[in-house]
Amino acid sequence: MSSSNVFAMLSLLLLSISSCAGAAAIDKRLPVPAGYVAAPYYPAPHGGWTSDWSESYRKASLLVQNMTLAEKTNITAGTGIYMGRCVGNTGSALRVGIPQLCLQDGPLGVRNTDHNTAFPPGITTGATWDKDLMHARGVALGEEFRGKGINVHLGPSVGPLGRKPRGGRNWEGFGADPVLQGFGGALTVEGVQSVGVIATIKHFIANEQEMYRMYNLVQPGISSNLDDRTLHELYLWPFAEGIRSGVGAVMIAYNAVNGSACSQNSYLMNGILKDELGFQGFVMSDWLAQISGVSSALAGLDMTMPGDIHTVPLVLGESYWMDEYSRAILNGSTPVDRLNDAVTRILAAYFQMGQDQNYPPPNFDTNTQDAEGPLYPGALFSPTGVVNEFVDVQGNHAEVAREIARDAITLLKNINGTLPLSGNATLKVFGTDAEKNPDGINSCSDQGCNKGTLGMGWGSGSARYPYMNSPIDGLNTRGANYQFFNTDSFPSNSNPSPSDVAIVFVTADSGENYITVENNPGDRTSSNLNLWHNGDQLIKDVAAQYSNVIVIVHTVGPVLLEEWHDLPSVKAVLFAHLPGQEAGDSLMQVLFGDVSPSGHLPYTIPTSEDDYPESVGLVYFEVGQPQDTFTEGLYIDYRHFNKAGIKPRYAFGHGLSYTSFSFSNATITPVTPLTATPPTRPAKGETPSYPTTIPPASEAYWPDNFNRIWRYLYSWLDKSDADAAAAAANSSATYPYPEGYSNEQKPGPPAGGAQGGNPALFDVAYDVSVTITNTGSRAGKAVAQLYVQFPSGISFDTPVIQLRDFEKTAELAANQSQTVQMRVTRKDLSVWDVVSQNWIIPSVDGEYGIWIGESSDTLALKCSTASGSCTGNQTSPV
Ligand SMILES: *[C@@H]1O[C@H](CO)[C@@H](O)[C@H](O)[C@H]1NC(C)=O
Ligand SMILES: *[C@@H]1O[C@H](CO)[C@@H](O)[C@H](O)[C@H]1NC(C)=O
Ligand SMILES: *[C@@H]1O[C@H](CO)[C@@H](O)[C@H](O)[C@H]1NC(C)=O
Ligand SMILES: *[C@@H]1O[C@H](CO)[C@@H](O)[C@H](O)[C@H]1NC(C)=O
Ligand SMILES: *[C@@H]1O[C@H](CO)[C@@H](O)[C@H](O)[C@H]1NC(C)=O
Ligand SMILES: *[C@@H]1O[C@H](CO)[C@@H](O)[C@H](O)[C@H]1NC(C)=O
Ligand SMILES: *[C@@H]1O[C@H](CO)[C@@H](O)[C@H](O)[C@H]1NC(C)=O
Ligand SMILES: *[C@@H]1O[C@H](CO)[C@@H](O)[C@H](O)[C@H]1NC(C)=O
Ligand SMILES: *[C@@H]1O[C@H](CO)[C@@H](O)[C@H](O)[C@H]1NC(C)=O
Ligand SMILES: *[C@@H]1O[C@H](CO)[C@@H](O)[C@H](O)[C@H]1NC(C)=O
């Protein structure tokens, strides 16, 4: 037994022990607040009805027709935790040419490997507001996943959306707004899939905090209780965009919605994802999120990962599916039609990305960094072999990583042109964040510590750094005149001189719930929204001794700046977000003025945490199922601050430059005429059909003399078990189907019709253009942000303004202009009407304000849909 086997077995035991402390039933639904209901939606809609997937479905159905029961159930589940080289490994169907599929984390790079790029995470990418960079990062990510032989990339993350400022995993996504998150997610999907890798948009849905997210024997996972309109207009929006871009996989979240676990919530998977949003790929569970076999299949789950049941006796190699799925088909509990659809969806995604053509097998091992090791570390005895081939997949991706890190840097404050620095400035640098973790850049597993330069948060959404280009490395490369005090307490020996410029590096971290860092169990429970490591004190101490202080913040999200922001010596404040491996040179390019900063905040920075609605605070321990009720509805982040009339420290979208821009010559052109309701959706196309008869029990018999690996998950049954199951199908004891169950395929809701919903929702209602001129003396990139203000007097309460599009210019030289094009779609001008279950335009001829500016609180250009004209010098609506 090798050391990694021992390690793996210990982890398994710990996982099991931590979830077996009691015996409360988890299959009964606990009460949720009055009015929140998880309605049944059956059956699972067949995939294959949109023309853009029909060829892939044709290929898939030819195979599925020829597959045995055990082959089909084999590819709907993982072979078990630590039972292969990837974090998830499906079974294979080699007889028909389908290999095991390799699924691997995570959204910012290939996790647990070597010779990969540690890209800046989503939040940093969002802060660039640059669609081209969002796409380019997706392509580069896809190349690295493909290069490692990974079929399914477990990203992008567009949920959490960032409803809770303390939420642990907000940094994996692109910002606290559905449209910014939607473009970030969809462009990543398009980039990743352009090189043949299946992308996975996750976590579906309303997974807004880390604590209590998982079901265990004593407590069900947290229930996110939210109304239908809020679901559609906020949390579902980025998923709809990703599906519209053709995403191949969706990962469901750990939590429940309205009391029903996402992994078996038929309304969400069957109704919303597969019918309304026309999702054509497959739905997988988050790791160990599945809590039932037949129910989850009926509710629309297509693949379970990593295959095992979620709790004891995990160590013994048990699955809700695999052999149990074969049994459930034979005994008639799960209609064979459901299994055929799940398998067809998985194989269709495989063909849709062209993975049948020369796709490389995995050449790395997520479980070990050794060249050789056990092939099945989760088994007691495992054959060993070559597991890591150390394939370098970095290409020239450091360039796009650096460009994102640089163009995300958000200048919040810059008094009297303190920045950029002159090359000969005398610098005093403070804070341990300026230099690499002295214990080693990858010394904490899954980056589960905040030590040294903070390039990413922690958890499964992290990756190992191939190197860390720290700010100190950056200063060295430039030959800057600096002195570094590698401490978070103000040193007594820094000898301040009046001409010195002091640079203080500070951080705030968060991550995934299975690791606790400095008493923060994923969510920022202990640090609150404050800087870590007494950052406020360090800044104040430096500001007391130096008169030119620049604060650089590496952070996962909003932090409070109030203790020091207005001190006279604090001249400049920069958010460098989470830069990934390229922290140093990217920052130097901005500090020394090679480029002007061009990032903008992807969230609001408040002056006090009390300024948020109470309902977006973290939910702590509750007996039974913790209830998280989204009573603030649509009013999160800037939507809330604007409604409540609270001026934040910095508004959503804020970001300064070294130069200045003017916006002029705006035009608005009607394109598609609007109607109160969208045109009728197209009908569903044909989907593959198969015999619905239960296959012979012999299709699930173990092959003769098969050499089983202990704990490995197989889809076969003993002959006697298979025969007994088949006999049970003829008995009168039928499976207790859920309320509302039916085998009759539905035509689909009016709001559906194509990937992402009714295609008419995406019709362009107005083209909008604006000319941006660099009116300053330095080169720089500007961001145009377009917000919609609904007409007054309508019967729907709507946020004051909502982001609907944005565009970043190329680098403009002084006096140079660029005209950028944006668009407003039908959906952008609609509200979700819960009564008609459709997107409606509340006032077709109403005066919609289309506001354009550099941030959500400096909107001076207004185009009107009623007058068809645009005027400048307007008073910003907020
Ligand atoms: C949750 O309950 C609310 C209130 O009844 C309802 O509007 C919404 O559609 C439900 N959502 C889901 C996903 O079941
Ligand atoms: C399916 O099986 C039939 C009959 O055995 C064979 O002719 C056909 O080529 C097979 N199709 C595929 C896609 O394997
Ligand atoms: C299921 O997948 C495993 C792993 O690839 C393989 O050993 C086994 O033969 C497969 N079972 C079937 C029925 O093809
Ligand atoms: C059929 O098998 C499934 C999976 O093991 C099980 O949940 C179900 O209760 C069985 N049904 C009958 C009628 O035996
Ligand atoms: C900015 O510079 C001007 C002119 O040197 C000076 O009067 C003013 O006090 C400075 N402002 C701040 C906030 O330092
Ligand atoms: C630094 O260089 C600038 C020009 O780049 C010059 O104006 C300034 O006097 C220099 N300062 C010092 C302290 O040498
Ligand atoms: C004004 O906008 C129009 C339409 O986009 C564009 O063709 C034109 O060049 C712009 N004019 C100026 C002066 O920038
Ligand atoms: C179940 O019943 C059908 C029809 O009555 C029969 O053809 C089949 O052999 C039976 N299966 C088993 C396993 O008893
Ligand atoms: C920009 O335009 C102004 C006014 O036309 C002119 O004075 C200035 O020299 C120009 N600057 C550059 C860098 O071309
Ligand atoms: C705003 O007003 C200024 C001064 O009156 C004028 O020069 C400028 O063109 C106006 N801007 C717009 C976009 O109308």
UniProtKB/TrEMBL annotation:
Keywords: Carbohydrate metabolism, Cellulose degradation, Glycoprotein, Glycosidase, Hydrolase, Polysaccharide degradation, Signal
Name assigned to this protein: beta-glucosidase
Matches recorded under Gene3D superfamilies: Glycoside hydrolase family 3 C-terminal domain (3.40.50.1700), Glycoside hydrolase, family 3, N-terminal domain (3.20.20.300), Immunoglobulins (2.60.40.10)
GO BP terms in the entry: cellulose catabolic process
UniProt cross-references to Pfam families, sorted A to Z: Fn3-like (PF14310), Glyco_hydro_3 (PF00933), Glyco_hydro_3_C (PF01915)
Pathway: Glycan metabolism; cellulose degradation
Signal peptide: 1-23
Keyword Membrane attributed: no
PANTHER family xref list: BETA-GLUCOSIDASE (PTHR42715), BETA-GLUCOSIDASE F-RELATED (PTHR42715:SF2)
Domain Fibronectin type III-like residue range list: 782-856
Superkingdom of this protein's organism: Eukaryota
SUPFAM superfamilies tied to this protein: (Trans)glycosidases (SSF51445), Beta-D-glucan exohydrolase, C-terminal domain (SSF52279)
Coiled-coil ranges (or none): none
GO molecular function: beta-glucosidase activity
Family of this protein: Belongs to the glycosyl hydrolase 3 family.
EC assignment: 3.2.1.21
Segments for region (Disordered): 673-692, 736-756
Reaction it catalyzes: Hydrolysis of terminal, non-reducing beta-D-glucosyl residues with release of beta-D-glucose
Keyword Transmembrane helix among UniProt keywords: no
